[in-house]
TrEMBL record:
<keyword id="KW-0489">Methyltransferase</keyword>
<dbReference type="GO" id="GO:0032259">
    <property type="term" value="P:methylation"/>
</dbReference>
<dbReference type="Pfam" id="PF13489">
    <property type="entry name" value="Methyltransf_23"/>
</dbReference>
<feature type="region of interest" description="Disordered">
    <location>
        <begin position="1"/>
        <end position="70"/>
    </location>
</feature>
<keyword id="KW-0808">Transferase</keyword>
<dbReference type="InterPro" id="IPR029063">
    <property type="entry name" value="SAM-dependent_MTases_sf"/>
</dbReference>
<comment type="similarity">
    <text>Belongs to the methyltransferase superfamily. LaeA methyltransferase family.</text>
</comment>
<protein>
    <submittedName>
        <fullName>S-adenosyl-L-methionine-dependent methyltransferase</fullName>
    </submittedName>
</protein>
<dbReference type="GO" id="GO:0008168">
    <property type="term" value="F:methyltransferase activity"/>
</dbReference>
Amino acid sequence: MADDREPETGGAAAAGEKNPGTVPGPAGSGEQSNPAPPLDILPPQHWVQAAQDNASDDDGDSALGEDAASSTASITSTILNYRTIHGRTFHSETGNAQYWGSNDDKKNESMDIGHHLMTLTMDGKLYRAPLKKNIKKALDIGTGTGIWAIDFADEYPDTEVIGTDVSPIQPGWVPPNLKFEIEDCTRPWTFRPDCMDYVHIRLLVGSVIDWTELFREAYKVLKPGGYLESYEASPAMESDDGTVDDKSAMHQWGKFFIEGGRKLGRTFTVIDDKVQRKAMEEAGFVDIEEWDCKVPIGGWAQDPKLKEIGQYAQLSLEQDSEGWVLFMANVMVGWSKEEIQVYTTQLRREIRSGKKHAFYRQRVVWGRKPE
């Protein structure tokens, strides 16, 4: 395969151990700007009392079944130089990277279930951009376990596919047209200009300081006529009927991330602020389109398809609810592991009850580089 990398002038820095609580300011500032007023995050004692009040309640049947739970396989990490927080591993900080999710087996299983969930919401599709079948090169930024890139490489066997991430947690056995590389996407990319037909970016919410600059890097490496596609989700759990009240664990879930993102200088309100479309326009993309979807959490929906989607959302969350929220609740908010466990127990109880008709929002935005 052709080497589309530029000379090594700004790639990922060597991985090194840093204080996991170090909080960078906005790009170029050197310090954190004046933060917005903190959100009303309920104290740990609230969840201890809730657990006592609900001690006699039955957690209920998760309604997922063993088949769904066993449908994903564990991916084993190949590098051990990770940060550890309360026994869970997180990537060794590379360059400007500050990913908030753990990268161990338990979290990887949850992400793989989430991939199946996201594919279900898009009616089995891996993308929404109008791609041609004869594209030559595709790039998956923030590839995670690599499961999307693997599926895409299978669907496009004549396309060279590259997946990049700050954690080397991808499997060794992959399609012959796919390779994985360690790269911090928040630094200047090292691929040559005009070499890619398609750039796919998924779930970098809370990890990017400057979305316009990120999309400018994608613009640079895309061929004229190539497409950028960005898939993001909101951390907020909402309801249309008021069942997710402001004292519930579900409602509080999003506040951990929004407040933590403020302290990190990396927003989690990408969907609320319409960041994807604005950043694509500023980067120079045209023919921008978007697709929105509400994703139910739990099996409460009456529609069979939505019910299945909700069950997988529940499975993904329950697989590792602690791993999703640990960094934000511990490092950013200051909760102990025990306090986080009490909270996540209440969260699972609410999901399993079926009484709270929660959903989260996701948005896919794609645009074309002018020819």
